[in-house]
Design a protein that fits this description.
The chain has 58 residues and is mainly α. It has one domain. α1 runs antiparallel to α2. The model has no long low-confidence stretch (mean pLDDT 95). The chain is built from two helices and no strands.
């Protein structure tokens, strides 16, 4: 579960950096990276949800 949290934190940090670059500077490539990071965050959150449910059953 700790590895999943680290993965989520890394993806969120990358998303924040790229989204800010797009919003502030109009960087289109950063927008593409931010969208990709958002998909990674979504996948990691689903993994977290599964792991959390498994942990609560124990």
């Amino acid at each position: 579960m700790k590895a999943i949290l680290e993965k989520i934190n890394a993806a969120v940090a990358a998303f924040n950096e790229d989204a800010a670059a797009q919003a502030e500077k109009g960087n289109k490539a950063a927008g593409t990276r931010a969208r990709k990071a958002s998909l990674e965050i979504e996948k990691a959150m689903k993994e977290f949800r599964k792991a959390s449910l498994e942990a609560s059953k124990k």
